[in-house]
Amino acid sequence: MNANVIQRVIQFISKAAGIVLTPDKAYFIDARLSPLLREENLGTIEALLSKVEAGDRRLSARMIDALTTNETFFFRDRTPFDHFRNIIIPELIQRRPAGKTLRIWCAACSSGQEPFSLVMLLDEMKAQLGGRQVEIHASDISESILAKAKSGIFNQFEVQRGLPTKLLLQYFKKDGDNWQISPDVVRRVNFFRHNLLEDPSRLGTFDVVFCRNVLIYFDRPTRAKIFAGIADRLAPDGFMLLGGAESTFGVTDRFTSHPKERMLHIPLPPRKAPVAVPGRAIA
Ligand SMILES: C[S@@+](CC[C@H](N)C(=O)[O-])C[C@H]1O[C@@H](n2cnc3c(N)ncnc32)[C@H](O)[C@@H]1O
User: Fold this and answer.
1) Is residue 27 located within the same domain as residue 114?
2) E-only strand ranges, the chain
3) Whose CA is nearest to atom 9 of ligand 1?
4) Which of 93, 137, 170, 243 has a 20 to 30 Å separation from 74 between CA atoms?
């Protein structure tokens, strides 16, 4: 693969999804795009790029699917789910009147393990919720991974990662070599396509946003823009959870840490731009 082709792939995925790839990732690009070339009967990455650059939206979506990393598992990293149970829900319940629906957004949900983990956790906490409805909205840029999430079908390896046996037996049915999560659980999640580079204002206001293990793929200005979009979509007393390797530090001033837990992020109002007084320098 020559340097020009690598550069065109890098430009494509940066513009389409915000994902930063560097020229030393030639092996990665090749490994990810080769199956797509075979399936589409295209001889080279250059041939694929020509079609995509000419506006082939189907191939463009397939190329995004191929270049995104969908690694996820049930109750991933455990701690965010502990914070959800021990801090977020108790605080929200205290502040919200009984009839108020709570809204959660999983902003890069991959094959659904994160929102499905929340459904199972919320079932466990039902008595605490005092009859409050909880909506779970889950989005991803990749149509194919969303289709997998909506199918609710997981293989043996996937159900062995992070999912307690008790929950496997309670919520899943064996289906050949795979496991099918209860359709009831799938129905409780509103899956939809959303590119984090796009304005999220049409999505309404959320009490909790999980945006985990996706910002690591973006550069700092993109992360800052996404944080601002999430801060605008969060209730003033809402919460944001990030992946273990992700931080707001040095990227945005729209969040601060929860007083009880550094890794739990709470929104700050946007800082007002200083007003220029004629004839005076702005400090
Ligand atoms: C590594 S997975 C993380 C899944 C889950 N949040 C977790 O922590 O286990 C990252 C997901 O981000 C999605 N993604 C990448 N770029 C995106 C973008 N610009 N907008 C929305 N989703 C994106 C990928 O398709 C992938 O499913």
Assistant:
1) no
2) 102-106, 134-140, 153-154, 172-175, 178-181, 189-193, 206-211, 234-242, 255-258, 261-267
3) 72
4) 93
